Amino acid sequence: MIDSEDELLISTSNRKHSGRPKNEVWQYFNTIPADSTNGKKDLHSGAACKFCKQKWSRGKTSEMIAHLVLQCSKPPPPEVRTLYLEILNNGSFDDNDDDNSSKRSKPYKQSKITNHVERLTIRIRLTVTDNKQRRCSRVFTKFFVTCEVPLWIVENPFFIDYSKELCPGFQVPKRTILSTTMINVETATVIAKMKKKLSNETNLTLGIVLFDFLIN
């Protein structure tokens, strides 16, 4: 005989998950069940690296890929790192694919056709292509890193206005995105270029030069 608790577990396990499937990078991470505290349920699963056991309360594709390529203390196989170095370098990932939860749709309200035309006109004028957004983001990151500009400036309203005047359609990133995803992408780009350049060289010798006069 199945009691009510067993019926609930069966019902939960048989329930189909809606939304997009998780990114393939999850095969290198153990899934940590979504937490539920203070009566609020977090629908996003946590992650734990299968190699070094590092954990995240919420698994994000960009952070997980960057971890495998740049940060894992017990690096995965070379072919795995090479694959995700290329993916990180190209920026061909999307954090939205981590969200397997269905979003509640807002109540539908009929609006006038003129409102749709006005919104569409504004959207076309303020939209940039994904390629241009990516190029702008990389130049944006290089500016902050090479000029050692404090990252908090990216959220300053005056700086945002300045960026929008230069390129109205450019989506100015948040400081957390700039300090993690965007810098990780640029780091991967530099590493990929170095690996490509070194692969075309022969008879290389690794040496260390000490400049005593700089110390004394």
Automatic annotation (TrEMBL):
Residues 20-80 form the BED-type domain. One of its GO terms (molecular function) is zinc ion binding. GO terms for cellular component: nucleus. This is BED-type domain-containing protein. Transmembrane segments: none annotated. Residues 1-20 are annotated as: Disordered. Coiled coil: none annotated. It is found in: Nucleus. Keywords: Metal-binding, Nucleus, Transcription, Transcription regulation, Zinc, Zinc-finger. The keyword Oxidoreductase does not apply. Pfam families: zf-BED. InterPro entries: Znf_BED, ZnF_BED_domain_contain. PROSITE patterns: ZF_BED. The keyword Cell inner membrane does not apply.
